[in-house]
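Hi V.,

You were right to ask for the full record rather than a summary. Here it is.
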Amino acid sequence: MENTQPSGKGTRDWRQAPKEPIIMSTVENLRVLYEDNHLVIVNKRNSDIIQSDISGDRTLCDTVKGYVKQKFNKPGLAFIGTVHRLDRPVSGIVIYARTTKALNRLSNMFKYREVQKTYWAVVKGTPEETEATIINYLWKDQKLNKTFAFKDPGPDRKESELSYKVIGVGDNYTFVEVYPKTGRHHQIRATLASLNCPIKGDIKYGAKRTNDNASIHLHARKIEFLHPVKKTPITVVAPPPDDALWNEFLRISFDV
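Predicted structure:
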């Protein structure tokens, strides 16, 4: 049984209060997928926060710092650099750098699109095409913290590109594998919504209701890149959360 992480000093602005306990990563229950002297790669829970916000909850970066400090008995705080981010209700792979060399090199690799990412999404509805590449133009509303997708360029719109593949279709939901090429704000969420296929639980982008634990069914499943120091290929796969839909996605993916 996992321990719940107490909330911080602030108040989280729930659009609808969760019905299940909110479980966050701690030093004791951190799910480490890969680690060496340069990197720590973890499987983020869908309640973990990457950047500090009004909630005051402890960031995943601080939890990783505590993990490294405890495991290697380091005096003071360990250096941990945040390489990339996932939205709070999203689960899956997050890479942290243990050295400034690794941080700088990995940041450039993300910038120049040298990292291959695979996401899993459970969506309502089914895309018209089984496989497709979508190029659109995203505009972020800063006040709403929401991204809108357009077919054509325009002021403050950023070009976005991703590909997807339908892995399976269930009674109520469709299982989609997504391969983003760019890394725009809420890119996958907004693009799938523009296809009339909102992600389960993502009421910001058209889902009818929230998930009981405030998550959305979007998971950073796999990441592939060259090690920033050793130059060896790294492939990391993160198990999805344990629920009926994710378990069905796993079953279907093994059959494909």
